[in-house]
Design the sequence.
């Protein structure tokens, strides 16, 4: 049933409530009849020259480039100068990174539910503002209390604006056939942001005393302005503008009927139904295990390379940059393969490759960027392939109806598990003075996740279940 909502409640012309599948429509002309958005696009209409969904992808890339440079990867380059300034132990940075994971894990489900009730533009704008305030505060801290306060504020904003929940939900709405590929491109921001790790290190060393403070403050201002502008590009879904996902345009009534059938089947499960599936809990366990490995390496890669392997800070920062450069192949390649292959094989390979990458560090003990290249390539491709899977597999397995809460719960649960990684490495370094013993645990965890992939159903079975759920819901609505 179509229901009219007062225009003052709408940011866009016709926002779609994916939780109830109800469409809240505002006629484009006063007094005009209400219509389904898909009815506004007549058969025979030409495909748009440039599909707006790719602008959403570009906005995701721009947002996460800023956030990676300032916070996710950029923060790692500022750990050592902050510790030296305040005389903190490595456990402090480990606790901070673990706390970031706790906050993200708790907030991600909330963000997923909020995306049903608020527009994505509002989510991105306010999250960017909160994160910018937190970054500026980090540049003004005077001790542990203020450090943790502003670190949590920055983390809160980052959770809403990053590609953890908000952007995957958006991309899944705008793309169907090319969902994995679009998701792979959309999460490329850290590739462009990671070179700023080297820049952060160079600027901090050139400024000298308190250089890290000016870097935090500068990034805070850039994030507030930059993400506010990027938010103007965000739109909730193609249906709001009379478009189909992927920019497809039916050429005749038969193709239009097929497009409607696909759209109904892609609606998928309610959240209650999702939580009763085996795939949800296995995927959550798989992601949680690999997040332990990912978060540990990302949080401690520079200190590990400097203290255990003898790298200079600049060389260690170059290593981080190269890891994210290689992750581009995993992000785009993994997303593309998710569209065309059996996701279970892809998940199995991802876990094995990540385990081999850490195993190489343990056995080879590289002392230069060149000798660390096997780790850099394998770990980069392995973890890069993980990034697009939340939105891609969430849509494939469960559909769009509850995708926001589903991605939020998957991200939240996995990140809460991932908090173990940086905290564990930080404590082990404080006790032993090195990371070596702790790294063996990461090898075991990564290899243990690989078999879980084959405990999930085949793509064909998942599509059939999702179509059945969509058809059942359509029947309930018709009755």
Sequence:
């Amino acid at each position: 049933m179509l229901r009219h909502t007062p225009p003052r409640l709408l940011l866009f012309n016709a926002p779609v409530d994916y939780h109830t599948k109800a469409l809240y429509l505002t006629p484009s002309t006063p007094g005009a009849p209400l219509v389904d958005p898909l009815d506004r696009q007549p058969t025979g209409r030409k495909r748009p020259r440039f599909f707006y969904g790719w602008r959403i992808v570009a906005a995701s890339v721009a947002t996460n480039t800023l956030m990676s440079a300032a916070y996710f990867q950029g923060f790692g380059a500022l750990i050592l100068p902050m510790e030296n300034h305040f005389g903190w132990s490595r456990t402090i940075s480990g606790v901070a990174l673990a706390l970031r994971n706790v906050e993200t894990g708790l907030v991600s489900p909330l963000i997923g539910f909020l995306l049903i009730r608020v527009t994505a533009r509002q989510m991105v704008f306010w999250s960017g503002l909160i994160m910018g305030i937190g970054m500026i505060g980090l540049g003004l801290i005077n001790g542990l209390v203020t450090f943790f306060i502003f670190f949590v504020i920055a983390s809160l904003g980052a959770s809403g604006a990053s590609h953890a929940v908000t952007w995957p939900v958006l991309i899944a709405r705008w793309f169907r056939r090319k969902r994995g590929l679009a998701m792979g491109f959309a999460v490329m921001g850290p590739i462009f942001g990671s070179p700023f790790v080297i820049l952060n290190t160079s600027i901090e060393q050139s400024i000298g005393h308190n250089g890290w403070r000016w870097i935090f403050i500068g990034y805070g201002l850039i994030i507030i302005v930059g993400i506010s502008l990027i938010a103007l590009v965000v739109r909730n879904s193609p249906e709001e503008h009379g478009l189909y996902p992927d920019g497809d345009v039916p050429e005749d009534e038969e193709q239009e009927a097929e497009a409607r059938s696909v759209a109904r089947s892609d609606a998928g499960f309610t959240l209650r139904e999702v939580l009763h599936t085996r795939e949800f809990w296995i995927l959550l366990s798989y992601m949680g295990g690999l997040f332990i490995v990912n978060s540990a390496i990302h949080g401690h890669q520079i200190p590990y390379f400097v203290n255990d392997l003898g790298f200079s800070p600049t060389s260690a920062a170059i290593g981080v940059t190269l890891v994210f450069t290689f992750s581009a192949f995993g992000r785009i390649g993994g997303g593309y393969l998710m569209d065309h292959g059996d996701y279970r094989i892809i998940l199995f390979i991802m876990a094995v490759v990540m385990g081999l990458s850490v195993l190489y560090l343990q056995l080879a003990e590289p002392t230069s960027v060149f000798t660390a290249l096997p780790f850099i390539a394998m770990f980069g491709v392995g973890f890069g392939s993980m990034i697009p899977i939340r939105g891609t597999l969430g849509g494939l397995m469960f559909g769009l109806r509850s995708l926001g809460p589903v991605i939020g719960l998957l991200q939240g649960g996995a990140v809460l598990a991932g908090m173990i990684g940086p905290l564990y490495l930080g404590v082990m370094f404080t006790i032993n003075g090195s990371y070596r013993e702790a790294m063996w645990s990461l090898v075991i965890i990564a290899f243990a996740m690989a078999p879980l992939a084959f405990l999930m159903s085949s793509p064909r079975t998942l599509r059939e279940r999702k179509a059945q759920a969509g058809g059942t819901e359509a029947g309930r609505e018709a009755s």
